[in-house]
Amino acid sequence: MKYMTRQCRLILAIVADSCGHMTADEVYREAKKSMPRIAVGTVYRNLKELSDAGVLRRIRVADAPDLFDATLTPHEHLICPICGRVEDLLAEGLEECLRKAVGSGRFSYELRISAPCSLCREKNGSSDRTTEKSVR
Ligand SMILES: [Zn+2]
Ligand SMILES: [Zn+2]
Q: CA 95, 96, 102: angle at the middle one, nearest 5?
């Protein structure tokens, strides 16, 4: 991006500092703390520009608002059906695998993994995990 406005820099900093995934509304609420007069439309427009420019990654979530992610290293997203938390998940080798399948042209993909997140897994029976281990 050639020119970043003050609002744009603030929005980028908010998402980067969150170390997680934020909806546009969450970014708006955060931005208002530093810039009480910022308009919701400004936040949406800047988020769109930042994700179009590849500075932020936009994650589409089924039945929920899009999320914005400042982590640009390749990773997938696990969406917890129990609590709705979004967790980063490394699927190493996936890109190479797809590359082999589609050849050398440009490609993009979206992968949504639905599984209990680490917090919910911890809550629900860490006991069956230990039995699993002892079998091995
Ligand atoms: Zn969960
Ligand atoms: Zn992520």
A: 85
Rg of the chain, C-alpha, whole Å = 18
Looking at the CA of 20, which ligand is closest? 2
Q: Cα of 26 to ligand 2 centre, how many Å?
A: 16
Q: Which CATH class is domain 73-124?
A: alpha beta
Please compute, for residue 84, the number of CA atoms within 13 A of its CA located in the half-sphere on the CB side: 9
- Residue 4 phi/psi, 5-degree rounding, is -115, 125
Residues with CB under 5 A from ligand 2 (ion): 69, 71, 88
Ligand nearest to the Cα of 84, by number:
1
Read off the pTM: 0.77
- CATH architecture of the domain with residue range 1-72: Orthogonal Bundle (1.10)
Q: What is the pLDDT of residues 17-31, one digit of tens each?
A: 987 899 999 999 999
Ligand nearest to the CA of 122: 1
Domain ranges across the chain: 1-72, 73-124
Model pLDDT for residues 21-74, shown as the tens digit of each residue: 999 999 999 999 999 999 999 999 999 999 999 999 999 887 889 999 999 888
Q: Is residue 100 pLDDT above 50, yes or no?
A: yes
Distance 136 CA to ligand 2 centre (A): 32
